[in-house]
Structure formats: structure tokens, C-alpha cells
Amino acid sequence: MTGLVHTAHDRGITTLTLDSPGNRNALSATLVTGLADALTRCATDRDTRAVVLTHTGNTFCAGADLRDPPDPEALVGLLRQIVELPKPVVARVRGHVRAGGLGLLGACDLAAASTDATFAFTEVRIGVAPAVISLPLLPRTDPRALARYYLTGERFDAAEAVRTGLLTAADDDVDAVLAPVLDGLRRASPQGLAETKRLLTATVLETFDRDAAGLTALSARLFSSPQAREGMTAFLERRDPAWVV
């Protein structure tokens, strides 16, 4: 357990809970480090058959913490760690997901949400782009849907997230829809899970190998730009940025 990531274990399933409700579980440097450390422990824990990633509060993850942002390379490392973990990672969402939080969902092998959850790629509205999080998202989700939501920053619901491939399932009772999934994972052999996951993530990891350096550089350049400074300042001051017409 760290201050921002809590760990619990039940019958082969290790649950990692993001617990930073004060900033809506935003991806601060501290949270990224804490989650990466917890995943490292899960990777070598023989009692962990699969990992559930969930949260406290009404937001799964609000994206990058603008006051304490993680290094782009650290975020790339965390997303790749989820993809490469030799155990399935299942996202359990009972709230809203924004920007970089959608990268966490994209990196997970399976993802379920309550039907009242909402989603948005808000990067364009603060002057940046969903660069690093595209590494797991582009190979796994509908490209036409991503084009719309990347370019507009529109909010969309859980049903649309299922249709686009961002979610595996959505239900009023997210635990009910996850119950048979977790039961199936408990019945699977560790070797079978690891090798099957390797098959499923091969294309995603090819994208990391090919594009991670370029997208990391793009993210760093955009976040240091004048438009990003204006966008982030406007967000923190709860006003429209200067370019809104």
C-alpha cells in the first residue's frame, strides 16, 4: 500500500484502488509511481491470478495532474507495464474518466463501467493532444470514433464506450457484470493466461516499440507550448481559453 494506491487480495484477484479523490485520481507523479510499484509487486506475486484496477470517489481518473504532472516517459512506462504484465488487468469504473485516464482503460485487457460513467478526451481543449495515451488506444478502438472524440473533446457515455471498444461491458451494477469475468480468470491457469495475453497484446506492444519515443517527445513539446500554458491556466481558473470563439 502507498498513500494513493491501496492493495487488497481475494481468491487470486488483487485489487489496486486509486485513492486520490482530492484531485479526482489525476495522474500525478506520485500516483504514477505508486501504481507502477504496486503492479511490479503483482507481477511476481504467485497468489495473484489477475489484477482489478479501480478507484475511490466519483472519478476513475481525471487525466494528468496539471499541478504535479508525471514525466511523459514515466506515463509511457506505466501504460506499457499494464500491457506487458503477465496477468490480466481489469478496469472497474464507477464514475467518470477523462484524458489520460482513458489511457489507463486502453492499457487494461478488460474494462467494465457503470452505465452512468462518462468519458472525454479533453486534451484539445487545453492546447495539447492525446499523444502518449494513443499507444494503447489506437490499436484497440474504433478509429472513426477516436477521430470524433479526439478532435472535439465531446463527452460520451458508457454505451458509446462499449461500441467503440474502449469498454468490454457496461451495466447498472458493474460488479454483477464483472463477476463471471473474474470467475473465468480464477479458473484459468497462470501459464494459459500469460501466454494468451501475450498473443492479444502483440500488436499493442509493436505500437509502443515503433511510436513511444516520438509521442513522448510530442507530449513534452506540447505541454511546454504557449497554447498549453494558456489552456492549463484557463482550466485552473475555470474560464474559457483565449482561442474559444
From TrEMBL:
Superkingdom as given in the UniProt entry = Bacteria
Matching entries from InterPro entries are given as: ClpP/crotonase-like_dom_sf, Enoyl-CoA_hydra/iso, Enoyl-CoA_hydra_C, Enoyl-CoA_Hydratase/Isomerase
- Write out the GO MF terms: catalytic activity
Q: CDD domains in the record, alphabetically?
A: crotonase-like
Q: Which family does it belong to?
A: Belongs to the enoyl-CoA hydratase/isomerase family.
Q: What is this protein called?
A: Enoyl-CoA hydratase
